[in-house]
Design a protein that fits this description.
The structure is a homodimer. With about 300 residues, chain A is α+β, with helices and mostly antiparallel strands. Chain A contains five helices and 16 strands. In chain A, strands 2-3-13-11-12-5-4-14 form an eight-stranded antiparallel beta barrel. In chain A, strand 8 (about 140-145) and strand 9 (about 145-150) form a beta hairpin.
Chain lengths: ~300, ~300
């Protein structure tokens, strides 16, 4: 009954006969006007190059974890990750990188024991609701380009652990982790990590470079031999790179009409291939569209 | 408020002070009695060997898609997949294998155009409810070892597209696919595929062999050059192998008390590492425990 009602609602929204097919998500994103795209600052782009030539780009989220993100930025500027590696790849879970086995001193400007930025105050966040139930929180939606789980009654909001989400490795409480060891989700969203680890961003390009690495055979997916570690040849902010070499990205404004269309269609796939719309969608299956900044707009 | 109530409920269930830590999911599974484990028939195990020595084992689900599963079994027995390859690996989506680029005739016993087994009748299925909302269906739970989404009002049930789920590649309607081309989910659960494709099983061992393959660079993750195809050296039922070489598995009975414990703890991680239980869990984050049959029990 619920599904039938939602199919009817979708048909009403496009103002057409019920049999009319919807656009695909890709088509909706392609039709978004330039004004619906927001540039990402080069200070909020972490660019990691792997030895095989692969590049992984992480967008940082200072709105959610300001002290941890400031740490990551300070570590990058101090070239803290010289000699770092990807040393853990656990199937359907995370890839993790940093200076494993090393006890480098923290550079100037780093807060060694940050407070528990496991969530932020909901106040001040405008949220586009997901419109579907979330198993892990009272509500879910999108704010400033990020997928968030939130609790209106308790007043908290967090970036959800979705595919590509980047967080800070830590030990046991009260240690939140400093930011020297980072992980990216490479499997089904491990949402039980929400509010248990500090999220600093998400991979917006090159996640396949991490997700296709061989899995580590030790407990938790650590590589057994150091020979298996994947060397990181460079890990810095885009702002540290020569302007002509900086990658530049923009994301689809999650408060835009284009994003609302995209969200609705994600929940109601109904095109030449998909015949039975679900009438609902998981937060992590609505990946916020990100693209390389079109050339000519750079600057 | 909801989360707090559920934390309280979990504490009540273990009959201890609120500060008491729960067991981890791994500990609960290790404590399950032998009677809680169910053997999988060698007729319902598809064993795929890749050229690099990796093995992928698929459990079939004839209870849900009898005609498609019968096709897969008939194809295996006829050695239909001699020369087959993995020819498509799309990041955060699926790996796909079969006789791409070949038009082999269907062996005897194969139904070339099976009916639309996109879901089955809910009648006759005993279901252990998930206990958390599902964004894609009115209800979700577990039946006979499988994660299912279902609609009590409409009377249908399907195996959900979770990490490792195996389905039948198809063209456009009304073709449901015969079973010669199969895919496995290697990323975040693409649940919009539920009721749009026929699910024949799930990978129970070796999914990392597929998920760590290089991604294809063509549209939909197809490999560009045939040289990138990953040869399959053998693809047959366990029942076709010499008895001494057959892998043997069992799964945790999803109607057992052990599974109920496991499910509750999956929704309320609260141990030395996880401090803030979610009070809920996603269907696809409750992977039904499967293990190699302990030696001595084989036979």
């Amino acid at each position: 009954m619920r599904a039938l009602l939602l199919i009817a609602a979708a048909s009403a929204l496009i103002g057409a006969a019920p049999a009319k097919k919807l656009l695909t998500p890709t088509e909706v994103v392609a039709a978004a006007p330039a004004s619906a795209w927001k540039a990402i600052s080069p200070e909020e782009l972490l660019v990691m190059d792997l030895k095989d030539g692969g590049r992984v780009v992480v967008q940082l989220a200072p709105q959610f974890t300001p002290i941890h993100v400031a740490n990551v930025q300070a570590l990058a500027r101090a070239n803290y990750w010289a000699g770092a590696t990807v040393y853990r790849v656990q199937d359907n879970y995370v890839a993790q990188w940093g200076n494993n086995d090393s006890e480098k001193p923290w550079p100037k400007g780093v807060t060694p024991k940050p407070p528990a930025e496991y969530w932020r105050n909901l106040n001040g966040l405008a949220i586009t609701p997901l419109g579907s139930p979330d198993p892990y929180a009272p509500a879910a939606g999108f704010s400033q380009g990020w997928p968030v789980a939130y609790n209106p009654a308790a007043g908290w909001a967090v970036i959800a652990h979705c595919y590509g989400t980047v967080g800070v490795g830590r030990g046991l409480d009260p240690d939140t982790g400093t930011g020297g060891e980072l992980y990216a989700v490479i499997g089904h969203a491990p949402r039980h990590m929400d509010r248990n680890l500090a999220v600093v961003g998400r991979v917006i390009e090159g996640i396949d470079r991490l997700s296709s690495l061989p899995r580590g055979t030790e407990a938790l997916g650590f590589y057994k031999d150091k020979a298996q570690y994947v060397p990181i040849t460079a890990l810095r902010l885009a702002s540290q790179m020569p302007p002509a070499e900086r990658p530049a990205f923009e994301f689809l404004d999650t408060s835009s009409a284009s994003f609302a269309d995209y969200l609705r269609i994600r929940a109601n796939r109904n095109d030449d291939f998909y015949k039975r719309p679900a009438g609902g969608v998981d937060l992590c299956n609505v990946q916020v569209p990100v693209r390389r900044k079109p050339s000519g707009e750079r600057g």
